[in-house]
Amino acid sequence: MAFLVDRATKLLALSFLPPARTNAHEALFSCVLYFDRSVSLSLFQNHTYTALTGALFAAIILFACLHCEEFRSSPGTPLLLAGAAGNLFDRILYGYGVDWFYVGVYTNIADISLALGGFWLLTSLFIRFVSNQAREM
Question: What are the distances in angstroms from CA 75 to CA 87, 119, 125?
């Protein structure tokens, strides 16, 4: 579902939003179109090889995590996968990410899904670790 919402909002943004102003700070929150050539959340924007290496490293970790029971059973996993698919789809289709709103950084639904899914996954792993430690005492 998050992937479909991401695709729909990006298509609307491409159709109706004005492009971001270069070298200008946006308001605290604004809806503007920004073409992100970085990995995610405007990271490694001017370092193409670093961005590609980071994306490859993230893909390898994601693949390894798919074999981990804690990762597969976490409620954050679908959000992580949807966010990764949304950003990957942009890179394949356009060659860059389509960000459409600004909240301190240019972002989109896929980036938010990645952040929330990662937070949810880490939180559930931490809670499971703490409960296992408490059981052993």
Answer: 20, 11, 11
Can you read off the two tokens belonging to residue 60?
């390898």
The helix/strand count (H/E) of the chain reads as 5, 4
Residue 37, H or E segment: none
Residue closest to 100 by CA, chosen among 12, 5, 1, 40: 12
Report whether 24 contacts 44 (CB < 8 A).
Answer: no
> Which is nearest to 87 in space by CA: 66, 117, 64?
117
Q: What tens digit of pLDDT does each residue of 44-92 get?
A: 555 555 566 666 667 767 666 666 777 777 788 889 889 888 988 888 8
Token digits of residue 19:
């492009």
At residue 27, the 3 state secondary structure works out as: coil
Separation of alpha carbons 66 and 19, rounded Å: 37
> Quick one: pLDDT at residue 5?
95
By the 8 A CB rule, do 29 and 102 touch? yes
